[in-house]
Fold this sequence. Notes:
Shape: globular
Order of helices and strands: EHEEHEEEEEEHHEEEEE
Oligomer: single chain
Number of strands: 14
Radius of gyration: 16 Å
Distance between the termini: 25 Å
CATH architecture: Alpha-Beta Complex
Structural class: alpha+beta
Helix content: 10-25%
CATH topology: tt1808, chain A
Strand content: 35-45%
Amino acid sequence: MIAIPHYISPQDYLAIERNNPIRHEYRRGLVYAMAYDTDNHNRIALNLLKLIDDHFGDPSTCRFYSGNVKINYQDEFYYYPDAFVTCDPRDRHDRYIKRYPKLIVEVLSTSTQVFDSGEKFTDYQQLTSLEEYVLISQDRQWVECRRRSAPDTWEITVYNMGDRVTLHNIDLEFAISELYRGLDG
Length: 185
């Protein structure tokens, strides 16, 4: 992520972002252009969203979103996670921004891996609604689930090839291989 090196207000960011064909994230006054996704990155996110969609069925009180809807915490940050779930009715009033996710998923890339597993996770922890944060490798069958067990305590479970992944907060279990279906070498 490369920052535009001057402060911008959250209001100016939102005004610019709404009409911009290139997505940007916002963190404490700095704006970052989003890295381009690979075909495997997109396929993993699509496979996960399909698993969630099939699991929820219709009707559901929960909603899931791809990387085109922002998550926000106060004026601290606006991020585009690769996938997330919210079941909070307050998130139905704004079509562009959600504030009460219970599950956030990031598909890791070389350029975002350190930020996604470090500072971004620290930011996301401010969301009291967040119960699970999931990191998915696109280079190998590897998933890390961070689950909130107390207000400031997170437990980590790592899944590898052959394992079944469990997303406790939405009661979904699936073979890790399902995330990697249809990937090109």
